[in-house]
Design goal:
Elements lengths: L15 E4 L3 H11 L1 E7 L6 E6 L2 E6 L5 H14 L4 E10 L9 E9 L19 H14 L3 E8 L10 H7 L4 E3 L2 H11 L2 E11 L4 E2 L2 H6 L2 H9 L1
Parallel strand pairs: 1-4, 1-5, 5-9, 6-7, 7-8
Antiparallel strand pairs: 2-3, 3-4, 5-8, 6-9, 9-10
Helix pairs in contact: 2-5, 3-7
């Protein structure tokens, strides 16, 4: 079968897919947590793997950066590979005063400055939200592990280096917890496909406290988030 972006054959991808932005984080998860691992994709170096976690089949695949990239990969997973649930496990820049580096944000909703929703020709503004069942389970698992977390709105931005130096202040003033670049497109694709999605984000930098993790830490140190996602 395969697509222009995914070399997997039908049946090689599990019904549940964990989706970090970084394909090297997908490789790390597969090598660290999964048994009986088989790599199903190397196209464009967007690595994808299927294996067993606690005897349950699960896949992990990178999404790349930004809504156009996760939009392509999640669409193909939902529509061409019969995937039922995608759990984004990514990093985010913190806004909220109570957040610190390595805290977990579970995205109940995803604001966005993107025009990704234009394709659906809706008669108003769509509110992208995560799947409640997955969100509820993620909260229970975080509670059980003693993980510090917050649930609420994030913003999925199209621009990383924004020329408007007041944009973060305005999102923060509306109670938005953090900024990332993918969740809104994932939530819209899931809604349209009638499938499930959830974004869980580890705070890798705080845009108001001026703190940040290294690139290496971002790749390999989000263990609590990864374990919660695997247990969902």
């Amino acid at each position: 079968m395969g697509t222009p972006h995914n070399g997997a054959e039908k049946g090689e991808i599990a019904k549940k897919v964990l989706m970090p932005g970084d394909p090297l984080r997908a490789k790390f998860i597969a090598e660290t947590y999964l048994d009986e691992v088989k790599q199903f994709n190397t196209v464009r170096n967007m690595f994808g793997y299927t294996g067993k976690y606690k005897r349950q089949e699960v896949s992990v695949m990178g999404s790349g950066m930004g809504m156009p990239s996760i939009g392509i990969y999640s669409y193909e997973l939902y529509h061409f590979y019969e995937v039922e649930a995608i759990i984004r496990i990514g990093s985010a820049g913190g806004f909220h005063d109570d957040l610190e580096l390595m805290d977990l944000v579970i995205a109940q909703g995803a604001c966005t400055d993107s025009r990704y929703a234009y394709q659906f020709d809706l008669p108003g503004t769509f509110a992208p939200i995560g799947d409640y069942e997955l969100l509820s389970k993620a909260v229970s698992l975080a509670e059980a592990k003693g993980t510090k977390y917050k649930v609420g709105n994030v913003v999925s931005a199209d621009v990383f280096y924004n020329n408007d130096d007041r944009v973060n202040d305005r999102w923060k003033s509306m109670g938005v917890l953090a900024v990332e670049m993918e969740a809104a497109a994932l939530y819209m694709n899931a809604a349209k496909a009638g499938k499930k999605a959830l974004a869980m984000l580890t705070i890798s930098d705080h845009l108001f406290k001026k703190t940040a993790l290294s690139a290496k830490d971002r790749e390999t140190s989000f263990n609590e988030m990864m374990e919660i996602a695997l247990d969902l």
